[in-house]
């Protein structure tokens, strides 16, 4: 093997390939000003403006009205409609773990709330953190039980 026969690894890339060597003379194509132009804020080292700066004009993020409020301490419930509980067999004890295994709940944040959208045709015992009034009525009307955890 000779020095001129050395090649980079298959699938790899040589480090010096495509690397611009700035400020190394006019012949390099990136000499003298190094691609920064003649003068101005962006030509200086450490120069430039922060993101969102619009040259002194009032920036967009300050021109737009601010609205709303996000409560960081709000309880966020994972929601399940009773229509989707029809996939379980009769007399099943539906807990949060069972809902998670069935794929009805992804990540349990502050608990699970059962809502009354749709019809329930099965007799189930449902355990959850919260129930809407209609959900509780429909579960009990189908012969099931509602248990608040």
Strand content: 5-15%
Distance between the termini: 75 Å
The overall strand count is 6
**Outline, from the CA principal axes?**
elongated
> Would you tell me the structural class of the helices and strands?
alpha/beta
Query: Order of SSEs, N→C?
Result: HEEHEEEHE
Q: Rg, please?
A: 32 Å
Unreliable sequence segments = none
Count of separate DSSP helical elements: 3
Largest sheet: 3 strands, parallel
Proportion of helical residues:
10-25%
Order of adjacent strands in the largest pleated sheet: 1-3-5
Residue-averaged pLDDT, rounded? 89
Description:
By secondary structure, the chain is an alpha/beta fold. The chain has helices at 60-63, 96-101, 133-141, and strands at 78-81, 93-94, 112-115, 125-128, 130-131, 145-148. It contains three helices and six strands; from the N terminus they run H-E-E-H-E-E-E-H-E. The mean pLDDT is 89. A three-stranded parallel beta sheet has the order 1-3-5. It has a three-stranded parallel beta sheet with strand order 2-4-6.
Helix-strand blueprint:
Elements: H1 60-63, E1 78-81, E2 93-94, H2 96-101, E3 112-115, E4 125-128, E5 130-131, H3 133-141, E6 145-148
Parallel strand pairs: 1-3, 2-4, 3-5, 4-6
